[in-house]
Predict the 3D structure of the following.
Amino acid sequence: MRATKIVAKAIAVTPADIPAILKGDHIYSLADVQAAFDANSSTSVYQSASTISDFFVKENVIKQAPDIKALLNAAFVQSVSQNKK
């Protein structure tokens, strides 16, 4: 497979090593990514980032939570989604 050869070269391993390396990885579908960038969803990346930043503020790791919507940009996902219609 062409992709396996490209990835193997990029991380300096043999193509035969790639299946074991990727075994624990999950490749998300476009629908998965669209759902992750749905700001209204309780399981979105926005909600996760907000929960994490709130924890960091509480634990004095950071002084102020960042503006999550400014931090995460869904433009690429939206663009790909539009092109798939």
Q: What stands out?
A: The chain has six helices and no strands.
